[in-house]
Amino acid sequence: MKKIIITLMLITSTLSAFSQKKLIKKLFSSDTTRHNSFLPVPLFGYSQEAGFEFGAVGIYSFYIDKADTIIRASQVYGVAYTSTKGVTQISARGDIWSKKNKWHHIYEARFSNTPFNFYGLGNQTLRADEDLITQKRYRFNTEIERQLTKSYYPGLGVEFESLNFKDREAGGIFDTESQAPLFDKDGGRFLLLKLTQLLDTRNSNTYTTKGFYTRLRYGYAPNLFGGNNFTGNLFTADARYFYTPTKKLTIGSQLFYETISSKNEIPFYLLRQLGNDQIMRGYYLGRYRDRNYLALQAELRLRLIDRLGLVAFGGTGSTYGKDANVTQNLKPNYGIGTRIFFDLDKSLALRLDYGWGEKPTGEKRISGLYISLGESF
């Protein structure tokens, strides 16, 4: 692919920001007491479309009540960067657990102005059709869930997005629509009203070694904005299971499914996209797009020592239309990675993964590097 993104999280630079020697000593200690932690990390990256990227990413992890022995760790993530070619992203996300885990809150706000590669629609797009598009995006999301039983949390949510697109390469597939007609190419807005259902028996929400997790989301977008803006339904199912056969080895699995439907045409930007840094790693996000998305993955996590872990993962997935046979178009996914744990109490880690995918006819094998905070699932 033309776009190559390499993000280097410079831990050594981060450590220099801690001016007090005892804080550096604590970062590498074997301390597992319940405490709040903050890790700011300089971010440096490069892509052919965006040029050099520079900024910061950080994670603040804390307990609402440290005296509560069953409360789960809450996290707030923040990312801000710009680039030599004018790409900008500012985002924040909160995952908050109240006392006794009675309430679960998710908040997200994001602004981005960034290019991406568009390949067309469907499950058989070609690298030769790659077309550079600029996307400007505003996203706001809130979900609030209330515990009814020990593991069951029903809830409500609201999501709003506003997107705008501009073709930066005239005559490409986005401009000529040579593969398939694209609906609402300039962008649009939608408001999604959501019902959520969470069943969660995990022993930890930051580094799970046993238990299962199932989240169902149904969203309805009413006709609030008129025109070509999306009106319809979005359903997501995310099921995970974790098992620890030995003290240092954990096996995790995940089944992910999304589908979008409407009585009207569906804007191209709301079609489901295969690939990211969490599932189907190695695939460029948006290389394949369609109404439905199904993926399955498993991961072996070996905790060599307190501060270091290794992983191996594999899976399969596909995007597909209403009448397609999903089993005929499944794509492979496999890779390896490492984890550097900087907070032993919550098992928070810096994650480095390299994933491989299929080898399309006449193209190099699809692959990608990912460096981020926290586990993939």
UniProtKB/TrEMBL annotation:
Signal peptide per UniProt: 1-19
InterPro entries for this protein: Bac_surfAg_D15 (IPR000184)
Keyword line: Membrane, Signal
GO cellular component terms given for this protein: outer membrane
Domain Bacterial surface antigen (D15) residues, every copy: 100-377
Highest taxon of source: Bacteria
Gene3D superfamilies in UniProt: membrane protein fhac: a member of the omp85/tpsb transporter family
Cell location: Membrane
Protein name: Bacterial surface antigen (D15) domain-containing protein
